[in-house]
Amino acid sequence: MFIVALVVTLLVAGFIVFIGTRFLLAPRVALAGFGLPEGRFQPLAGAKGIRDITSGVMVLVVLAVAGTHALGWALVVAAITPVGDAILVARNGGSVSYALRVHGLTALFLVVAGLVLALV
Asked: How far, in Å, CA of 96 to CA of 92, rounded?
């Protein structure tokens, strides 16, 4: 279970860097994937992209510097971000169902993987 959580966490770190890069290079596509309607949120795409890249790199740095125990607790704390994203999508014209499927499941994954890494 521990190895699975670690491998999946590393894959997700790479994926979140990809998502952040997509927000910088293709903001319209990225905003649609995030769950927000096109238009007024376009200026925030760059900030979201940089935040995602930072989040993905943070996972790798915490793992390299502090190990899996600290990484686990960092992932639990990082679950705050997708919870906030789900609220943002749901309150700003996006689908609540989509917000829960995408951002809610991301938060759940972070908590579960984080606890496995922190406590095992």
From this structure: 10
> How far is it, in rounded angstroms, from Cα 68 to Cα 91?
35
Q: What integer pLDDT is reported at residue 44 of this predicted model?
A: 86
The per-residue pLDDT for range 41-66, each reduced to its tens digit, is 788 899 999 999 999 999 999 999 99
Q: Are 76 and 114 in contact (CB under 8 A)?
A: yes
Closest CA to 8 of 71, 64, 94: 71
Report the distance separating Cα 120 and Cα 115, nearest Å: 8
pTM of the predicted protein model: 0.90
Give rounded-to-5 percent helix, strand, coil for the chain.
Answer: 90, 0, 10
Domain ranges of the chain: 2-119
Which residue in this structure is represented by tokens 């689908």?
95
* Distance in angstroms (rounded) separating the CA atoms of residues 44 and 11: 26
